From TrEMBL:
PROSITE patterns: AMINO_ACID_PERMEASE_1. It is a multi-pass membrane protein. The chain crosses the membrane at residues 21-41, 47-71, 92-125, 137-155, 167-185, 205-228, 249-267, 287-310, 347-364, 370-390, 411-430, 442-460. InterPro entries: AA/rel_permease1, Amino_acid_permease_CS. It holds the Pfam family AA_permease_2. Keywords: Membrane, Transmembrane, Transmembrane helix, Transport. It is found in: Membrane. The keyword Membrane applies. It comes from the Bacteria. It comes from Streptomyces fildesensis. PANTHER family: AMINO-ACID PERMEASE BAT1, OS04G0435100 PROTEIN. This is Amino acid permease.
């Protein structure tokens, strides 16, 4: 790919799969957004929306996997955009990188915010006089992000080990939760309950409310580009990276559907549970009792913390690679690697700081979580869509890697790009009515600010010096510079 190697190649096939599977994290994704789905479409959208969106995400993942096989680098999306563009390579690469950056930061921030919310729910269950506040949620989120940054500061072997543990935590945790929700309650909803529809978004148009409910599944299925970003640290990356992407999506889709069904059928008092501070927690309490609910909530919190850790790992690799090509302010800082741990330590702390900034509106906004989620979904999926679109424009000129879609590549890519455009527009729209200063979806502002800065910077100076991914020389010259 034209780079001297700085990162150690210690990720095996399972490790590469594990990071995307952990970032997708069905337990964290479903539990953190289930309450929003109860208001925006109800069981009908939670179940059938999960199935439909999962299929669309598989199309996106397959197209991304084909590109990952051809360009297995930490730069991932922005690198491949620069290589696939016929003209204006620097611009395509520049904007893809910035979209990827803001989406990654949104994912890290949203996962930390969700974990903080559920930690407070657990504390309130344990000590009834504890008062849950937005300010405390922001404070706990900041502590979580700082601890995850510390973990990412150490060796890649530690992160790989924690990701392996997280996979089993998710599998075993999901089995325990599903069995408890299936066996313990003395009452379940009827089979036809999956068709029950609710629209409590405040909007009179039921179709619009239902479409907003798709955010539940879309938010869960973000971050599978983690396998792509870890390519430079993965053995046989041209095959293992795309396999990691596809396996993480497919396994998450199947297992997540089972968990979603278990939660939906365990609902008892729909109105009371949907209006509670943490709807899935209230479902656990009503169906299983306080003691069992506390135990399962610890599993959920652990899954969220693992998810945030993997999110930050992927985020830092994107920052490292983008800075390596001089595309971020202070690039020489962010692409430096610790000589002791061989990890991009400064990039880790930049990721943590940016995530903390993004959660600050949660101090006063009660729609902060869904806004951060929208930043994550829209930023990432637009970054996913750009190289897929450019690959479609190349047509037969695209030089595929050993893992490819063959003659189906164009069809799969077209479906992927169409879904990305439609979903991105949807999730930038208002999500709650009436629209006030505290309920406003500030995702368009957050994305707009980043893109405005990127645009001003591009036309001011960057277009003169940034021409896309840098090449350090021929393969033999790069090998002579190899640092490991």
């Amino acid at each position: 790919m034209g780079y001297p190697r700085k990162l150690t190649r210690r990720f095996r096939a399972f490790d590469n799969f594990a990071i995307s599977f952990t970032i997708i994290n069905i337990i964290a994704g479903i539990f953190s957004s289930f309450g929003f789905g109860m208001a925006a479409g109800g069981p009908r959208i939670l179940i059938f929306g999960w199935i439909g969106v999962s299929i669309m995400v598989l199309f996106v993942g397959a197209s991304m996997g084909e590109i990952a096989s051809a360009y297995p680098t930490s730069g991932a999306l922005y690198f491949s955009a620069g290589k696939l563009a016929k003209r204006h390579r620097g611009a395509w690469s520049w904007y893809t990188g910035w979209l990827n950056f803001v989406g990654q930061v949104g994912g890290t921030a949203a996962t930390g915010y969700a974990a903080a919310t559920f930690i407070q729910a657990f504390i309130a269950m344990q000590w009834t006089d504890y008062e849950v506040t937005a300010q405390r949620t922001v404070g706990i989120t900041a502590v979580i992000l700082l601890l995850q940054a510390l973990a990412n500061t150490y060796t890649v072997q530690l992160i790989a080990l924690l990701n392996r543990i997280s996979v089993w935590w998710l599998f075993i945790g999901m089995v325990v939760i599903v069995i408890c929700l299936t066996v313990i309650p003395d009452h379940h909803q009827s089979v036809s309950f999956v068709t029950h529809f609710e629209n409590n978004t405040g909007f009179s148009n039921g179709i619009y409310g239902a479409m907003l409910g798709l955010l539940v599944t879309s938010w869960t299925f973000t971050g599978f580009d983690g396998s792509f970003h870890m390519s430079e640290e993965t053995v046989q990356a041209t095959v293992n990276a795309p396999k990691g992407i596809m396996r993480s999506i497919a396994y998450s889709a199947g297992i997540g559907l089972i968990l979603m069904l278990a939660l939906v059928y365990a609902i008892r008092d729909y109105a009371a549970e949907a209006s509670s501070a943490a709807p899935p927690v209230q479902i656990l309490i009503d169906a299983l009792g306080m003691g069992t609910a506390k135990l399962l909530l610890l599993i959920v919190i652990g899954a969220m913390l693992f998810c945030g850790l993997a999110n930050m790992t992927s985020n830092t690799r994107q920052i490292f690679a983008f800075s390596r090509d001089g595309a971020m302010p202070g690039s020489r800082w962010w692409h430096s690697v610790s000589p002791r741990t061989r990890t991009p330590v400064k990039a880790v702390w930049l990721a943590a700081a940016c995530s903390i900034i993004l959660v600050l509106p949660g101090w006063w906004s009660h729609t902060a979580f869904t806004a951060i989620v929208s930043v994550n979904v829209v930023g990432l999926f637009l970054a996913y869509g750009v190289p897929i679109f450019l690959r479609l424009r190349l047509g037969d000129e695209f030089e595929s890697g050993p893992w490819n879609l063959g003659r189906y590549g164009k069809v799969v890519g077209t479906v992927a790009v169409t879904w990305i455009v439609l979903s991105s527009v949807l999730f930038m729209l208002p999500q709650v009515s009436p629209i006030t200063t505290t309920s406003f979806n500030y995702a368009p502002i957050a994305l707009g600010v980043v893109l405005l800065i990127a645009t001003v910077w591009w036309f001011a100076t960057a277009r003169k010096r940034f021409q896309g991914p840098v090449s350090y020389g021929r393969p033999d010259e790069v090998a002579a510079m190899d640092l490991i």
